[in-house]
Design brief:
By secondary structure, the chain is mainly α. The protein folds into 2 domains: 7-394, no CATH class; 397-551. The chain is 63% helix and 5% strand. The chain contains 24 helices and 5 strands. It has a 5-stranded mixed sheet, sandwiched between helices. Helix 12 (257-270) packs across helix 14. The chain is globular and about 75 Å long. The mean pLDDT is 95.
């Protein structure tokens, strides 16, 4: 039987991936699994759907909102989730994720000359925990990741013998990727430059190619800057290259708590085990998370052992530098930022798929056992089976949240209620999106006397001080929260507080640990329980228990 041409194989890989992901999105009915950040992205996309001429550019997602605004308009024309961008974003992510599978298939096929190895690698990557998750929810990383992954695969194939045209193509594709999500520049740029620096040509030629790479990046970004010059929110080239997103905020900085979050991020990337949000939960799940990390380490060691005899191969060295260089630089960057976050790990970890694909090709070529392919196919499918079952635990989350929101509005009239939250409860995103687009008070808002219909969503976030004011003392943070609560009560509002009221000091410290602010927990807990008391007044299986807060 004649083997289909590579183009047909790639088309089939794309079509099957897209059909599977679209079906999974429809079955799960939850595009906010683990993170509701995609809802905020959908809200930012709305002006680009309604009127792109006046919509504002975002310097950290310079091309993302124009691109997704145009694609959402296309989905509206096609009748796909018309007028509901927070759902449309998930379907668009499925499209870009399917392109990622095409890139993986083409890359492994080109390197190994094996259709079987390419299929196994594509299935393996499809099933990796964070990739599968981000392919079916509305988070914003997938299109940028797809282009950066494409640039990495091209660099792995080409940088053994880099020509100027190859360097320029890789630089341009890479730049379009990080212009969709700015922080993608950090993990991969050092790896690409290192691969050129260690390519097997003379030192002057290496330097010229490095200059060509930097020139391609600057030229591509410069062209984009000129095309958008004069548009609402347009910035100069310097501001495109450095937006400072996340710097000087509670997300930035190093701490021991982030080491546990790193275990969570790396472990869950492969096999979803839990412990996504705080170091305490990661500690409790240290065994399953460690199992996932050890399995990844086993794949790495096995691949190194299998491929060591080929260590002089220039292409293999380029592949190792690009993917392992991205891993090294990326995890250092993640340790500074948010190592537990799926979107921080997805572009750092594709080395795992590459290692698996190359290992599978080696085993298929050298093993004489008749059932080797079947054994490898089972192992390649195992992550998909496991992670698909884990995602099923969140099935129906979107309709359940809408039902809970209606119940909350009935029990707590918005015109006379101020909500006190930890700050990352998923229901806050729905209140923000569907009630009023208003941020938490953070000591900077004075409400009208109750009842007041505007804004509909009035809330206080305990985590706000840790995010926006990393230089505060624990007492300053606690007093800011107390001032907001007193202001709400003084203006005649009832204060409804979430389950955060019952958190112990240790639990609050664990949650604040992800913001490098664990040392503030005792002062905040003492302020709350010394000055206020609460009684349970409402319970819902989706959002938990709410308490009415009163002064002691």
């Amino acid at each position: 039987m004649k083997t289909p041409a590579l183009g047909w194989q790639l088309l089939l890989a794309f079509a099957l991936s897209l059909l599977a992901l679209v079906g999974l999105i429809g079955w799960l009915q939850n595009v906010h699994i683990l993170t509701a950040n995609g809802m905020y992205k959908a809200i930012q996309t709305e002006p680009w759907i309604a009127n792109p001429v006046t919509a504002r550019l975002d310097d950290s997602n310079y091309l993302y909102f124009p691109l997704y605004g145009a694609l959402c308009r296309l989905l509206d024309v096609l009748g796909i989730q018309r007028g509901v961008p927070w759902k449309q974003l998930a379907y668009l992510n499925a499209f870009w994720a399917s392109l990622c599978i095409v890139f993986v298939y083409a890359f492994v096929h080109r390197v190994t000359k094996s259709i079987a190895a390419a299929v196994l690698a594509a299935i393996f990557h499809f099933g990796c925990g964070f990739f599968l998750l981000l392919a079916v929810i509305s988070e914003d990383i997938m299109p940028g990741y797809a282009l950066v992954l494409g640039a990495m695969t091209l660099a792995g194939l080409w940088f053994d013998r880099p020509t100027y045209i190859r360097v320029v193509i890789v630089g341009a594709v890479f730049t379009l990727g990080w212009l969709l999500e700015w922080r993608l520049i950090f993990p991969t740029l050092p790896a690409l430059l290192l691969a050129l620096a260690l390519s097997g040509v003379s030192i002057p030629r290496r330097l010229r190619r490095i200059v060509a790479m930097i020139g391609a990046i600057l030229a591509t970004a410069g062209i984009v800057q000129l095309l958008w010059d004069g548009h609402n929110g347009a910035v100069g080239l310097h501001d495109m290259l450095w937006t400072g997103k996340g710097v000087a905020s509670g997300w930035a900085g190093f701490s021991w708590d982030k080491a546990w979050m790193m275990l969570s991020g790396i472990g869950n990337y492969f096999l979803i085990m839990g412990g996504f949000t705080d170091p305490i939960t990661a500690r409790r799940l240290v065994f399953p998370l460690s199992v996932s990390v050890l399995l990844q380490a086993a794949i790495f060691v096995a691949a190194v052992v299998a491929l060591w005899p080929q260590r002089a191969d220039r292409r293999l060295r380029a592949i190792a530098i690009v993917f392992l260089g991205t891993l090294g630089a990326g995890e250092v960057f993640n340790l500074y930022a948010q190592p537990q976050d799926p979107q921080m790990q997805i572009n750092v970890m594709p080395w795992l798929t590459v290692a698996w694909g190359l290992l599978a090709a080696h085993l298929l070529a050298t093993s004489r056992r008749r059932h080797t392919l079947l054994f490898l196919a089972i192992l390649s499918l195992a992550p998909l089976v496991w992670n698909g079952a884990q995602l099923a635990r969140w099935r129906g989350g979107d309709p359940a949240s809408l039902t809970a929101l209606a119940a909350i509005e009935k029990r707590f009239p918005p015109d006379s209620t101020v909500f006190l939250y930890w700050g990352f409860e998923p229901i806050t995103v729905w209140q923000y999106a569907l009630w009023s687009r208003t941020w938490d008070w953070d000591g900077a808002f004075t409400p009208a006397p109750a009842p007041s219909a505007q804004p509909k969503f009035k809330w206080i976030a305990i985590a706000a001080g840790a995010i926006r004011h990393p230089d505060w003392t624990a007492e300053q943070h606690a007093q800011s929260i107390k001032g907001d609560i007193d202001q709400a009560l003084d203006h005649g509002y009832q204060v409804a507080v979430s389950d955060v009221w019952n958190w112990s000091v240790d639990e609050l410290a664990g949650q604040l640990g992800s913001l490098a602010a664990a040392n503030r927990a005792a002062a905040i807990a003492r302020m709350l329980h010394d000055n206020f008391e609460a009684r349970p007044v409402f319970s819902n299986p989706t959002v938990g228990t709410y308490y009415e807060l009163r002064r002691r």
